[in-house]
Every structure is written in C-alpha cells, then in structure tokens.
Design a protein that fits this description.
The chain is of the alpha/beta class. It has 9 helices and 14 strands. The protein has a 6-stranded parallel sheet, sandwiched between helices. A 3-stranded antiparallel sheet has the order 7-10-11. Strands 12-13-14 form a 3-stranded antiparallel sheet.
Length: about 300
C-alpha cells in the first residue's frame, strides 16, 4: 500500500464494490475491500485497478478475505449483511445481521482503532447501535448512511416534478431509514424558491410517499436492494470525513436529547468531518414534521428492541 489515506469496505456485494469504485475514482485514498467469499474481493480489486489505467486514478485497491490489510484505516464502511428480498421487512433482517455486523466490527476495530465507522447494513438504525455497542467507541465515530440516500431520492423526484436541475434542489430527509422517514417539505427549495410555491400539495404528498418507499420500489423492480445511489452516498460521506470537509449532511447519528429524542440513532443533519459527527444541526421543523419524526423514532425503537445486546 502507498502512503495515502486508507478506506476499508467490509462486504464486496453490489453496494460494497460500488462504494470501492466511487472512492477509488476520487484518487485520494487507497481502498481495501474485504469479504468472506474467496476470490470475490480479489477479482473486484483487480478489475478496479485496471479501470484506473483507463480513468486515470492511481490508488491501490486491495481485495482480501481477512483484515490484516485493513490495519490503520481512516474510515471503515460496513456493508456486510444479508440484503433485503421482496416481501421481507427490514425488521426480519435484525437477528441475522446483528451477528454479522457484531463480528465484522470487532475484527475491523482491532486493527483500525482510530477510524470512523460508517454503517450501511440494514436495518440501518439498529445496526448503528450494534456497531457502537460492540466497539465501545464514542458516538461521534459511529455514523450511519441513510439520509444522504433518502434525500437524493427526494431531490430526484422533486427535480422531475418541477423540471428543474437536481443541482438546484435543496432538501433533507430525516428519521429512521424505513417507511417512517420524514421528508422535510417546510425547508425544501428549488433555486431558493420554497417547494410549496412550486408544487401543489397533492403532488407533494405523492413525492413524499414515493421517497419513503424508495428502497422498496427498487427492490420490487430488481429483486434486491439498490447499490448505485447507496454507493455514491457512502462515498460522499467518506469524502467529508477523510478530507475533513465539514459538510452538513443528513446522517444517522446518536441523539441525546436533540430533536426531543434520547438514546437513539436517528437520521438528522450533522456536520461531518475528520472526527466524524462533529455537530448535530438543529432544523426548525413545523409541528407536523416534528410529530412525524417522533413517530419515526418510535418505529426505530421497536426495531432496536429486537437486538440481543
């Protein structure tokens, strides 16, 4: 490996390998991709390194079935776990993925004690609790990716509805990563114009509904979870941490009273930098949004209650 920063991705499934590709293409960090399936991460790494010759990036991508090569990582991304299948709720995944996330967290932190962990495994909010509990790390250094993805879906739907560039859509989605997520319409704008001035309420409701079920819509079409948008979303978070960008991004963070929620991982806007979650940003929600967030929190607590640890 070179003297570059190092990013480890645990799990060489579709999301893991897409994340590896996105981070490698950024050209600032070496990437380690680890998976229990023999030859799979090695083959993906070989392919990605050869793509660098075409696309002009220099990082070393290493595929491995162990954790030795992950030592000294700045960021560890955990995508490992059983993916959601059609008809399967996120709750169904809890027991199986708790064991997997617990195991890989232990293996990763032993070799990278100063890393920031980004959790992507589902059910996302509960798996963040697992990684935090197993690692014993401060809450700032265990964060989940969900809000960036959910917000991206919301932004895409708003752009299509308004005929505007997605680059000019500013919005945020909060709450648990599931059907109870909260698309914050009150603060959403397109080119600085409030969204409610541009889109009628019935259409807005449809967009909000489609956002909440966005993951399920992909599963129903593909038979498995999405990977391109989730991989891109993780890479944006990796950028913010490794490059210490102080980006304000919606992430799954551990709340201790913020938004009236205590002792729970929930999606909220945070300032993300080298230390991980450096600040939780307080949005001024309207009464309906605050109530919806509290409902979302109750749903997350139900899933977290299934955990054995």
């Amino acid at each position: 490996m070179s003297g570059r920063r190092k990013v480890t991705i645990v799990g060489a499934g579709l999301t893991g390998r897409t994340t590896a590709q996105e981070v490698a293409r950024r050209d600032y960090a070496d990437v380690v991709l680890t998976d229990i399936v023999e030859n799979l991460p090695q083959g993906i790494a070989l392919d990605l390194n050869q793509a660098g010759a075409v696309l002009g990036y220099e990082p070393s991508v290493v595929g491995t079935n162990g954790y030795e090569e992950t030592a000294g990582s700045d960021v560890v991304v955990i995508t490992a776990g059983v993916p959601r299948k059609p008809g399967m709720s996120r709750d169904d995944l809890v027991t199986t993925n708790e064991k997997i996330v617990s195991s890989v967290t232990n293996a990763a932190i032993e070799r990278s004690p100063d890393a920031v962990i980004i959790v992507l495994s589902n059910p996302l909010d509960a798996m963040c609790h697992v990684a935090k509990n197993v690692s014993g790390w401060p809450k700032q250094r265990v964060v989940g990716q969900a809000g960036v993805l959910d917000t991206a879906r919301f932004q895409a739907f708003v752009a299509w509805e308004t005929g505007a560039s997605v680059k000019d859509v500013h919005a945020v989605v909060l709450g648990g990563h599931g059907d109870q997520m909260v698309a914050v319409v009150s603060t959403a704008t397109v080119g600085g114009v409030p969204l409610r001035q541009l889109v009628q309420e019935d259409r807005l409701s449809a967009i909000v509904e489609r956002t909440a079920k966005g993951g399920g819509e992909v599963v129903s079409l593909l038979g498995t979870s999405a990977w391109y948008a989730p991989g891109a979303a993780v890479a944006q978070m990796v950028d913010a941490i490794v490059l210490d960008e102080k980006r304000v991004l919606p992430c799954t963070a551990y709340l201790e009273g913020e938004y009236g929620i205590d002792g729970l991982y929930m999606g909220v806007p945070v300032k993300l930098g080298a230390a991980g979650v450096e600040e939780i940003v307080a949005l001024d929600l309207d009464a309906g949004e605050q109530a919806a967030l509290e409902e979302s929190a109750a749903a997350v607590r139900d899933v977290v209650g299934v955990l054995t640890s």
